[in-house]
Amino acid sequence: MTAQGDFNAIPVIDLAPLFQDDGDIQAVADAVADAYTNVGFAYLINHGVPQALIDGAFQASADFHALPRAEKMALEVNQWHRGFIPINTSTPKTSSIAKVTKPNQSESLMIMHDLAEDDPDVLAGVDLAGPNQWPSSLPSFKADALGYVNAMNGLARKMTSVIEIALGTEPDRLQPAFDRPTTFLRMLHYPPQPPASPEDLFGSAPHTDYGFITLLVQDEVGGLQVRNVHGEWVDAPYMPGAFVMNAGDILHRWSNGRFISTPHRVINTSGRERYSIPFFFDPNMHADIVPLESCIAEGASAAYDPIVYGDYLMARLRANHDQHKEKD
After folding, report:
1. Of the residues 108, 122, 210, 287, which has the maximum number of CB atoms within 10 A of its CB?
2. Mean pLDDT, range 294-316, rounded to an integer
3. Count of CB atoms situated within 10 Å of the CB of 94
């Protein structure tokens, strides 16, 4: 029997049946169960997101990152984790994969779920419940970004339904936690690193994702690597028209450890700029994350205690991002 995490390539899952009236959804769920039990990552093809939306999101990201630094810094990430994250301000110190002392060699614009001023969480002062920040010199940017977010929300909800089937739980068991999902769209720009960079300097240091699922679109430059159980780093190169989806720590806990949250990193020694856009689809901040009964063997206890998603998330943001560190 192959050990969990014993892989040397990233599998491919064809989502076409999800968009067919007589599509074999169980076959997709079986592929998801196999990929996320053993690898934690997969390429998704025939996912239904128009290429024009993907191209528009990349162009919006390139346009933003081409702005003068002063204009980007005017949108520096706020207390609600929305805005520009400059290079050298994010260091994943909670990583259990590597001792990380140098900050990530990337910059990004973080866009979260859009909230109205009279939203109940905004009025109650809930963590991360606040306004996005938009570049005023790019008039079409907001519409392009939110159009992409809307499409990604749709895909993520489809994948949540498939995950319920893959984990053998009842339909809509997970969906209520996403009635008001916590979402992050991160437009990342990686400057090229010199080939002779120190071994502990990364575009994105080894880490696992905090949340439920991540849907990533990347450019052709490459640099994403995924670690298997042997400690080997397996390339996850660009695949035209595909998303890379990985399970995060919350899905790992919800599945009682069945689906793995696999370590990954980015090293950009290509000599070229690299762009990628991960979309993080997570439960609402108030959701209780309790291991699913379908994932607990008869007579056994759950491997993880219940947690509240928002508490778990904020602990990691405060540890890993300068902007959220507790002030003395």
Report:
1. 108
2. 96
3. 15
Which residues, other chains included, contact 9 with Cβ-Cβ below 8 Å and sequence gap of 6+?
234
Is the Cα torsion angle 32, 33, 38, 40 positive or negative in sign? Answer: positive
Distance of CA 160 to the CA centre of its chain: 14
Helix, strand, coil in percent for the chain, rounding step 5: 30, 20, 50
Which domains does the chain show, CATH number per domain?
A: 12-324 (2.60.120.330)
Q: Residue 29 — left, alpha, or beta (φ > 0 → left; ψ -120 to 50 → alpha)?
A: alpha
CA 178, CA 187: separation in Å to the nearest integer? 23
Provide the pLDDT for residue 191.
Answer: 84
pTM for this entry: 0.92
What is the rounded CA–CA span in Å between residue 216 and residue 209?
A: 12
pLDDT band at 327 (very low <50, low <70, confident <90, very high): very low
Question: Which candidate, 259, 267, 219, places its Cα nearest to that of 39?
Answer: 259
CA 118 to CA 122: how far, in whole Å? 7
